[in-house]
Design brief:
alpha+beta, about 280 residues, 2 domains, globular, Uridine Diphospho-n-acetylenolpyruvylglucosamine Reductase, domain 3, single chain, four-stranded antiparallel sheet, binds flavin-adenine dinucleotide
Length: about 280
């Protein structure tokens, strides 16, 4: 196997631009190496981007925070910027594997791996995050909710690398919650994950974003449930109707981790848990 350890981003993009050296990108390797071992097929080469300083930074700007793709879950958990502007991302990263996985696994790997059960995409979608994709010709920004095309298919082109995740700063009047239900509290892939971010005042929903993992072929937003809730006064009737709307909107499947019925039931109840808590807390 040919192994390229890149010194800088341009070197990595140059390798991707050349079809002879367009090998898989390796960040933390916690998905990729498991997949190689399970599939029994190794690639002819690999481009290691895990140590690229340019994409291992967390930066705060006036209206956004920017997270480099090679930032690990542990770095996110420790970051004061992320704790302040997107604390639910910290909550999500704390549930990824265990400490060893959090120390190696990166947010970029979690996004590009495109598992419907990945823990950071629902949070990033609920926060209207964009991903920055770069090749030698330039950079483009794609909203995360448009990045996933279908099961494990993304908008990333063969010569592109995910460089940054850009998250708008949301006001202190917006509160978010992240919930993950798995078989155990640790080392569990989710059966359902839900992130909600909302602006609720006087018991009424002014704005709301709902995103879920493990209930569809990709992480998804729930636009019909969001539309139903916007402008509603939160009472038990509204919460019940929101639960029914969400159950009808998502498309979970039966698989080894859970059943579609259970996932629907849990997703509804997690939304209700958030709404009931939020209507008291705001
Ligand atoms: C024991 C164990 C437990 C786990 N538990 C969880 C869990 O609870 N929740 C969860 O969400 N995940 C979990 N995972 C999966 C994994 O740890 C995460 O998805 C992690 O964030 C992947 O990051 P990585 O840097 O290791 O990715 P890698 O394995 O290095 O890469 C994954 C994919 O992304 C591509 N890639 C990586 N970086 C870039 C980039 N910048 N641009 C373009 N492509 C890129 C790679 O080519 C590859 O296709 C677990 C894994 C293990 C082994």
């Amino acid at each position: 196997m040919r192994y390229f350890k890149c010194e800088n981003l341009i070197e990595a993009l140059g390798l991707l631009a050349d079809p002879d050296t367009r090998f898989p990108l390796l960040a933390g390797g916690t998905d990729l190496i498991v997949q190689w071992r399970m599939g029994g097929r190794m690639p002819e080469g690999v481009i290691d981007i895990g140590a690229l300083e340019e994409i291992r930074l967390i930066i705060q700007r006036e209206n956004v925070i920017e997270i480099g793709a090679a930032v690990t879950h542990s770095m996110l958990i420790e970051s004061n910027i992320v704790r302040r502007y997107c604390p639910v991302l910290v909550d999500a990263c704390r549930t990824v594997g265990a400490v060893q996985i959090q120390n190696r696994g990166t947010i970029g790997g979690n996004i590009v791996n495109a598992s419907p059960a990945g823990d950071t995409p629902p949070v990033l979608m609920a926060f209207d995050a964009k991903v920055e994709l770069a090749n030698l010709s330039g950079r483009r920004h794609v909203p995360l909710r448009e990045f996933y095309l279908s099961y494990r298919k993304t908008a990333l082109k063969p010569d592109e690398l995910l460089t940054r995740i850009i998250i708008p700063k949301h006001g202190p009047d917006e509160k978010a919650g992240f919930y993950k239900i798995g078989t155990r509290k640790a080392q569990a892939i989710s059966k359902v994950a839900l992130c909600v971010r909302a602006k609720i005042a006087g018991g009424a929903v002014n704005d709301i974003a709902i995103a879920l993992g493990s209930v569809a072929p990709t992480a998804v937003r729930a636009p019909k449930t969001e539309a139903f809730l916007k402008g509603k006064k939160l009472d038990s009737f509204a919460v019940d109707e929101a639960k029914r709307t969400l159950a009808a909107e998502i498309a979970p499947i039966d698989d080894i981790r859970s059943t579609a019925d259970y996932r629907r039931f849990v997703a509804e109840n997690l939304l209700a848990r958030y709404l009931e808590k939020a209507s008291d807390a705001f």
